[in-house]
Amino acid sequence: MVMVESPDTIFSRAATLHQAGHLDQAEPLYRAVLEQQPKHGDALHLLGVLHYQQRDPAAAVPLIEAALRIIPGNAQAHAGLGLALLRLNRLEEALAAFDRALVLKPDFDQALSRRGAALQGLGRHAEALVSLDRALVYSAHDPETLNDHAAALISLGRPAEALADCDRALALQPGISQVLNNRGVALCNLGRKQEAVAAFRAALVAAPDVAGFHANLGATLQELDELEAAEGCLRRALALQKSSAIFQSLAGILYQRRQFAEATTIYQQWLEHEPDNPVARHMAAAGSAAAPERAGDQYVATVFDGFAETFDKTLIGLGYRVPELLTGHIQKEIGNDARALRILDAGCGTGLAAPLLKPMASNLVGVDLSPGMLNKVAAAAALRRTCGWRVVCIHGQSSERL
């Protein structure tokens, strides 16, 4: 008589092997459980976790979702789904999964930490920091959480605190490549470029095939005017990963080195990789015999969208006085004429001229190609209330239109 193992017995063996790291041996046992009992929630969950650990999050998601239809109160399963979704860059769904896990288990440190990573990926840096602060209450000595906390601080412009987090993480576990990379970014932002170079190089010793580490090292060497070495780093980065940021950085270095034909070749390669990218299209054309008469609207919008966050600070730092000079000329022209003007501020950017123009205007409208620039205006609610200024995006969307 052949004895057939019960699903629970097989599951127990599978879970023991899984916990010991024997994934290839555990997988067929989980599947054997599911052949006998297709709605075994724990087997579905852990088979999904196993696929995630095998770097196959796409296979993990439907298995864990099926498990959650059977065991909806399992906080670990919700967090496991969040991890797989996070790996797939499905950030909003990952965030929702972590939130469900935390409803069930508010002190779930991994869910808090990975929730912070999802928020960071969504650009919600302040919220990410709050979540990671909570995670560190429960896991103050976890290097991954400390690293994510450092990344959020870097995004919020707090590099000194980020550096302290990185140093704490490395004291706990030396040689973690992602921590070394973030340490380099923090040092670079603190103006300690040579130390940043050492940190990026240490990250590359630990993980030589990460394109972002090569790119960060190249960008820092470029700032140090070590252009030949910077070019080499960017070429290695591009060989590992074709991305718009790497194409653009490499072409920029080649322009600095006055290797214009080679820079144009890189822009052309970028355009082949991303045919709809307006910056690649413009720059590839600008270096060719068929250079455009003017920059296209999409190119202008994309460039200034990228510049919007630092636009005011950069121009003020350069002693930019165009708004003052412009309004001075207008006042001189109109003299004592008290008639209010209807003023169109074409290419208004972030609205630096608006407070100076408004006293002369009965109606002041700013227009710009860049939604990013106009979003900065929209964020300055006090400016708009004070000046009564309306803004219009010529291409794209804005909260107000003429």
Could you explain how this protein is built, in words?
There is one protein chain. This protein has 402 residues and is mainly alpha-helical. It is built from 23 helices and three strands. It has helices at 7-19, 23-36, 41-53, 57-70, 75-87, 91-104, 109-121, 125-138, 143-155, 159-172, 177-189, 193-206, 211-223, 227-240, 244-256, 260-273, 278-286, 297-307, 311-317, 322-334, 354-357, 371-379, 381-387, and strands spanning 341-346, 361-368, 390-393. The protein has a three-stranded parallel beta sheet with strand order 1-2-3, covered by helices on one side. Helix 7 packs antiparallel against helix 8 (125-138), helix 9 (143-155) runs parallel beside helix 11 (177-189) and helix 11 runs parallel beside helix 13 (211-223). The radius of gyration is 27 Å and the shape is elongated. The N and C termini lie far apart (85 Å).
Produce the secondary structure layout.
Layout: H1 7-19, H2 23-36, H3 41-53, H4 57-70, H5 75-87, H6 91-104, H7 109-121, H8 125-138, H9 143-155, H10 159-172, H11 177-189, H12 193-206, H13 211-223, H14 227-240, H15 244-256, H16 260-273, H17 278-286, H18 297-307, H19 311-317, H20 322-334, E1 341-346, H21 354-357, E2 361-368, H22 371-379, H23 381-387, E3 390-393
Parallel strand pairs: 1-2, 2-3
